[in-house]
Amino acid sequence: MSGSALPHTPPLPRTRAAPIFAIASGKGGVGKTWLSTMLSIAFGRAGQRTLLVDCDLGLANIDVQLGVRPTADVHSVVRGFLELDSAVTPVMGGPGRNGGFDLIAGHSGSGALGAIKLEEVARIATGLTKLAPHYDRIILDLAAGIDPTVLRFARAADRLILVTTEEPTALTDAYAMVKLLHLQGAKIEPWVIVNMCESRSRGRRVFDQFAMACNEYLGVKPKFAGAICRDPKVPDSIRAQTPLPVRHPQSQAYEDVIRIVEALGAG
Ligand SMILES: Nc1ncnc2c1ncn2[C@@H]1O[C@H](COP(=O)(O)OP(=O)(O)O)[C@@H](O)[C@H]1O
Ligand SMILES: [Mg+2]
Fold first, then answer.
1. Were 93 and a residue from 2, 61, 100, 203 both cysteine, which residue would form a disulfide, CB within 3.0 to 4.6 Å?
2. Distance (Å, rounded) from C-alpha 70 to C-alpha 65?
3. 135 CA distance to ligand 1 centroid (A)?
4. Nearest ligand to residue 244 Cα
5. CA 190 – ligand 2 centroid, Å
6. 207-260 pLDDT, tens digit each
7. Atom of ligand 1 nearest to the CA of 27
8. What are the chain's domains?
9. Checking DSSP bridges between strand 88-91 and strand 20-24, what pairing results, if any?
Protein backbone atom coordinates (compact mmCIF):
# COMPACT_ATOMS: atom_id res chain seq x y z
CA MET A 1 0.00 0.00 0.00
CA SER A 2 1.35 3.43 -0.79
CA GLY A 3 0.34 7.08 -0.84
CA SER A 4 -0.15 8.81 -4.17
CA ALA A 5 2.61 11.13 -5.38
CA LEU A 6 0.02 13.37 -7.04
CA PRO A 7 -1.77 16.17 -5.20
CA HIS A 8 -5.08 14.79 -4.02
CA THR A 9 -8.37 16.60 -4.44
CA PRO A 10 -10.63 16.20 -1.42
CA PRO A 11 -14.14 14.90 -2.05
CA LEU A 12 -16.91 17.35 -2.96
CA PRO A 13 -18.44 19.37 -0.11
CA ARG A 14 -21.24 17.81 1.89
CA THR A 15 -24.22 19.67 3.24
CA ARG A 16 -23.09 19.22 6.86
CA ALA A 17 -19.57 19.69 8.23
CA ALA A 18 -17.99 16.52 9.62
CA PRO A 19 -17.76 16.20 13.39
CA ILE A 20 -14.15 16.24 14.61
CA PHE A 21 -13.14 13.38 16.94
CA ALA A 22 -9.95 13.83 19.00
CA ILE A 23 -8.26 10.61 20.10
CA ALA A 24 -6.38 11.44 23.31
CA SER A 25 -4.99 9.61 26.33
CA GLY A 26 -2.45 11.36 28.47
CA LYS A 27 -0.22 8.27 28.55
CA GLY A 28 1.65 7.07 25.47
CA GLY A 29 1.57 3.52 24.15
CA VAL A 30 -2.11 2.85 24.95
CA GLY A 31 -3.05 2.40 21.28
CA LYS A 32 -4.22 5.86 20.11
CA THR A 33 -2.52 5.72 16.74
CA TRP A 34 -3.56 2.16 16.02
CA LEU A 35 -7.13 2.91 17.11
CA SER A 36 -7.32 6.13 15.04
CA THR A 37 -6.44 4.10 11.97
CA MET A 38 -8.93 1.33 12.79
CA LEU A 39 -11.71 3.86 13.41
CA SER A 40 -10.94 5.49 10.04
CA ILE A 41 -11.20 2.12 8.27
CA ALA A 42 -14.34 1.08 10.17
CA PHE A 43 -16.05 4.44 9.55
CA GLY A 44 -15.09 4.11 5.87
CA ARG A 45 -16.59 0.62 5.66
CA ALA A 46 -19.76 2.03 7.29
CA GLY A 47 -19.98 4.49 4.40
CA GLN A 48 -18.46 7.53 6.13
CA ARG A 49 -15.90 9.60 4.23
CA THR A 50 -13.12 10.04 6.74
CA LEU A 51 -10.08 12.30 7.12
CA LEU A 52 -7.44 11.18 9.61
CA VAL A 53 -5.02 13.84 10.84
CA ASP A 54 -1.77 12.89 12.58
CA CYS A 55 -1.40 15.56 15.25
CA ASP A 56 1.59 13.85 16.88
CA LEU A 57 3.81 16.07 14.79
CA GLY A 58 7.41 15.36 14.03
CA LEU A 59 7.23 11.65 14.79
CA ALA A 60 6.51 9.08 12.13
CA ASN A 61 3.34 7.38 13.39
CA ILE A 62 0.33 6.53 11.26
CA ASP A 63 2.39 6.38 8.07
CA VAL A 64 4.76 3.83 9.56
CA GLN A 65 1.99 1.67 11.08
CA LEU A 66 0.37 1.53 7.62
CA GLY A 67 3.46 1.48 5.45
CA VAL A 68 2.32 4.66 3.64
CA ARG A 69 4.81 7.19 2.27
CA PRO A 70 3.15 10.61 2.38
CA THR A 71 4.64 13.30 0.15
CA ALA A 72 3.33 16.21 2.23
CA ASP A 73 2.52 16.78 5.88
CA VAL A 74 1.08 19.21 8.36
CA HIS A 75 4.46 20.95 8.75
CA SER A 76 4.30 22.19 5.14
CA VAL A 77 0.93 23.72 6.02
CA VAL A 78 2.20 25.29 9.23
CA ARG A 79 5.14 26.84 7.37
CA GLY A 80 2.74 28.25 4.79
CA PHE A 81 4.01 26.14 1.86
CA LEU A 82 0.72 24.32 1.37
CA GLU A 83 -2.98 24.63 2.04
CA LEU A 84 -4.27 21.87 4.29
CA ASP A 85 -6.20 20.21 1.46
CA SER A 86 -3.00 19.80 -0.60
CA ALA A 87 -1.36 17.90 2.26
CA VAL A 88 -3.85 15.03 1.97
CA THR A 89 -2.60 11.52 1.11
CA PRO A 90 -5.24 8.93 0.13
CA VAL A 91 -4.85 5.61 1.96
CA MET A 92 -6.29 2.32 0.64
CA GLY A 93 -7.72 4.16 -2.39
CA GLY A 94 -9.04 7.14 -0.43
CA PRO A 95 -12.45 7.61 1.20
CA GLY A 96 -15.49 5.74 0.04
CA ARG A 97 -13.72 2.66 -1.23
CA ASN A 98 -13.22 -0.46 0.81
CA GLY A 99 -12.48 1.24 4.12
CA GLY A 100 -10.07 3.75 2.57
CA PHE A 101 -9.62 7.23 3.96
CA ASP A 102 -7.63 10.45 3.53
CA LEU A 103 -4.59 11.09 5.73
CA ILE A 104 -2.78 14.28 6.68
CA ALA A 105 0.53 12.96 7.94
CA GLY A 106 2.48 14.41 10.84
CA HIS A 107 5.79 13.74 9.19
CA SER A 108 6.61 12.96 5.58
CA GLY A 109 10.36 12.63 5.74
CA SER A 110 10.91 16.05 4.19
CA GLY A 111 9.16 18.14 6.83
CA ALA A 112 10.97 19.68 9.78
CA LEU A 113 10.96 17.72 12.99
CA GLY A 114 10.10 19.47 16.18
CA ALA A 115 7.43 20.69 18.48
CA ILE A 116 4.53 22.68 17.21
CA LYS A 117 3.58 26.06 18.66
CA LEU A 118 0.21 26.92 20.11
CA GLU A 119 -0.62 29.47 17.40
CA GLU A 120 0.19 26.83 14.77
CA VAL A 121 -2.38 24.51 16.32
CA ALA A 122 -4.94 27.29 15.93
CA ARG A 123 -4.02 27.61 12.24
CA ILE A 124 -4.47 23.86 11.70
CA ALA A 125 -7.80 23.94 13.56
CA THR A 126 -9.02 26.71 11.25
CA GLY A 127 -7.86 24.72 8.21
CA LEU A 128 -9.76 21.67 9.47
CA THR A 129 -12.94 23.69 9.80
CA LYS A 130 -12.59 24.55 6.10
CA LEU A 131 -12.03 20.89 5.18
CA ALA A 132 -14.87 19.57 7.37
CA PRO A 133 -17.65 20.04 4.76
CA HIS A 134 -15.79 17.62 2.44
CA TYR A 135 -16.00 14.72 4.91
CA ASP A 136 -18.37 12.84 7.23
CA ARG A 137 -15.80 12.25 9.98
CA ILE A 138 -12.50 13.89 10.92
CA ILE A 139 -10.26 12.02 13.35
CA LEU A 140 -7.33 13.66 15.13
CA ASP A 141 -4.65 11.32 16.47
CA LEU A 142 -3.16 13.34 19.33
CA ALA A 143 0.28 13.10 20.92
CA ALA A 144 0.72 11.69 24.41
CA GLY A 145 1.00 14.09 27.31
CA ILE A 146 -1.13 16.96 28.49
CA ASP A 147 0.80 19.95 27.21
CA PRO A 148 -1.07 23.05 25.96
CA THR A 149 -0.92 22.05 22.27
CA VAL A 150 -2.51 18.65 23.00
CA LEU A 151 -5.21 20.30 25.10
CA ARG A 152 -5.79 22.90 22.34
CA PHE A 153 -6.38 20.14 19.77
CA ALA A 154 -8.66 18.34 22.24
CA ARG A 155 -10.69 21.51 22.68
CA ALA A 156 -10.92 22.06 18.91
CA ALA A 157 -12.76 18.75 18.58
CA ASP A 158 -16.49 18.13 18.80
CA ARG A 159 -15.95 14.86 20.58
CA LEU A 160 -13.15 13.81 22.89
CA ILE A 161 -12.31 10.09 22.78
CA LEU A 162 -10.11 9.11 25.71
CA VAL A 163 -8.10 5.93 25.33
CA THR A 164 -6.79 4.13 28.39
CA THR A 165 -5.73 0.66 29.42
CA GLU A 166 -6.51 -1.09 32.70
CA GLU A 167 -3.18 0.10 34.10
CA PRO A 168 -3.38 2.61 36.95
CA THR A 169 -0.80 4.87 35.25
CA ALA A 170 -2.92 5.10 32.08
CA LEU A 171 -6.06 5.76 34.12
CA THR A 172 -4.34 8.45 36.20
CA ASP A 173 -3.09 10.20 33.06
CA ALA A 174 -6.53 10.02 31.43
CA TYR A 175 -8.02 11.50 34.60
CA ALA A 176 -5.40 14.29 34.55
CA MET A 177 -6.45 15.22 31.02
CA VAL A 178 -10.13 15.39 32.00
CA LYS A 179 -9.24 17.46 35.05
CA LEU A 180 -7.11 19.96 33.10
CA LEU A 181 -9.76 20.44 30.41
CA HIS A 182 -12.37 20.84 33.13
CA LEU A 183 -10.21 23.43 34.93
CA GLN A 184 -9.82 25.31 31.62
CA GLY A 185 -13.59 25.63 31.61
CA ALA A 186 -14.13 23.26 28.69
CA LYS A 187 -17.55 21.61 28.75
CA ILE A 188 -16.45 18.06 28.19
CA GLU A 189 -18.28 14.78 28.00
CA PRO A 190 -15.45 12.40 27.10
CA TRP A 191 -16.11 9.03 25.47
CA VAL A 192 -13.81 6.41 26.97
CA ILE A 193 -12.26 3.38 25.28
CA VAL A 194 -10.49 0.80 27.44
CA ASN A 195 -7.90 -0.89 25.22
CA MET A 196 -5.82 -4.06 25.62
CA CYS A 197 -8.28 -5.59 28.11
CA GLU A 198 -8.31 -9.18 29.27
CA SER A 199 -12.04 -9.19 28.52
CA ARG A 200 -14.66 -6.64 27.54
CA SER A 201 -16.50 -7.13 30.85
CA ARG A 202 -13.32 -6.26 32.70
CA GLY A 203 -12.91 -3.19 30.52
CA ARG A 204 -16.44 -2.13 31.45
CA ARG A 205 -15.64 -2.44 35.18
CA VAL A 206 -12.50 -0.32 34.72
CA PHE A 207 -14.60 2.31 32.94
CA ASP A 208 -17.21 2.30 35.74
CA GLN A 209 -14.53 3.09 38.35
CA PHE A 210 -13.01 5.80 36.16
CA ALA A 211 -16.42 7.36 35.49
CA MET A 212 -17.24 7.34 39.19
CA ALA A 213 -14.04 9.25 40.02
CA CYS A 214 -14.65 11.83 37.25
CA ASN A 215 -18.21 12.35 38.40
CA GLU A 216 -17.45 12.51 42.12
CA TYR A 217 -14.44 14.85 41.99
CA LEU A 218 -15.06 16.89 38.82
CA GLY A 219 -18.76 16.56 38.09
CA VAL A 220 -17.81 15.25 34.63
CA LYS A 221 -19.80 12.29 33.27
CA PRO A 222 -17.78 10.24 30.79
CA LYS A 223 -19.56 7.87 28.39
CA PHE A 224 -18.49 4.31 27.64
CA ALA A 225 -17.54 3.89 23.97
CA GLY A 226 -16.37 0.31 24.49
CA ALA A 227 -13.52 -2.01 25.35
CA ILE A 228 -11.00 -3.69 23.05
CA CYS A 229 -9.37 -6.97 24.02
CA ARG A 230 -5.64 -7.48 23.86
CA ASP A 231 -5.10 -9.36 20.62
CA PRO A 232 -1.75 -10.64 19.30
CA LYS A 233 -3.01 -9.99 15.76
CA VAL A 234 -2.64 -6.23 16.46
CA PRO A 235 1.17 -6.16 16.86
CA ASP A 236 1.42 -8.76 14.10
CA SER A 237 -0.39 -6.47 11.63
CA ILE A 238 1.66 -3.44 12.72
CA ARG A 239 4.88 -5.40 12.16
CA ALA A 240 3.60 -6.28 8.69
CA GLN A 241 2.60 -2.59 8.10
CA THR A 242 -0.80 -3.87 6.94
CA PRO A 243 -4.10 -2.77 8.52
CA LEU A 244 -5.51 -5.41 10.89
CA PRO A 245 -8.77 -6.17 8.99
CA VAL A 246 -6.80 -6.53 5.74
CA ARG A 247 -4.20 -8.89 7.20
CA HIS A 248 -6.64 -10.74 9.47
CA PRO A 249 -10.24 -10.51 8.18
CA GLN A 250 -11.37 -12.12 11.47
CA SER A 251 -10.00 -10.73 14.73
CA GLN A 252 -11.34 -10.02 18.20
CA ALA A 253 -9.77 -6.54 18.31
CA TYR A 254 -11.35 -5.36 15.03
CA GLU A 255 -14.73 -6.81 16.06
CA ASP A 256 -14.45 -4.70 19.21
CA VAL A 257 -13.64 -1.64 17.05
CA ILE A 258 -16.80 -2.20 15.00
CA ARG A 259 -18.90 -2.23 18.19
CA ILE A 260 -17.27 1.07 19.18
CA VAL A 261 -18.08 2.66 15.81
CA GLU A 262 -21.70 1.59 16.35
CA ALA A 263 -21.66 3.08 19.86
CA LEU A 264 -20.18 6.34 18.56
CA GLY A 265 -22.87 6.49 15.90
CA ALA A 266 -21.80 5.67 12.38
CA GLY A 267 -24.86 7.40 10.92
N1 LIG B 1 -5.81 -4.21 21.33
C2 LIG B 1 -4.49 -4.40 21.28
N3 LIG B 1 -3.97 -5.64 21.46
C4 LIG B 1 -2.63 -5.85 21.42
N5 LIG B 1 -1.72 -4.88 21.23
C6 LIG B 1 -2.17 -3.62 21.05
C7 LIG B 1 -3.58 -3.30 21.06
N8 LIG B 1 -3.70 -1.97 20.86
C9 LIG B 1 -2.45 -1.48 20.72
N10 LIG B 1 -1.52 -2.46 20.83
C11 LIG B 1 -0.05 -2.32 20.79
O12 LIG B 1 0.30 -1.11 21.42
C13 LIG B 1 1.34 -0.48 20.69
C14 LIG B 1 1.26 1.02 20.88
O15 LIG B 1 0.16 1.51 20.13
P16 LIG B 1 0.12 3.00 19.56
O17 LIG B 1 -1.11 3.08 18.73
O18 LIG B 1 1.40 3.37 18.90
O19 LIG B 1 -0.05 3.82 20.92
P20 LIG B 1 -0.08 5.40 21.17
O21 LIG B 1 -0.43 6.05 19.87
O22 LIG B 1 -1.14 5.59 22.22
O23 LIG B 1 1.27 5.76 21.69
C24 LIG B 1 1.17 -0.94 19.26
O25 LIG B 1 2.40 -1.01 18.62
C26 LIG B 1 0.49 -2.27 19.37
O27 LIG B 1 1.44 -3.30 19.24
MG1 LIG C 1 0.55 7.58 18.77
1. 100
2. 13
3. 26
4. 1
5. 19
6. 999 999 999 999 999 999 999 999 999 999 999 999 999 999 999 999 999 999
7. 22
8. 20-264 (3.40.50.300)
9. unpaired
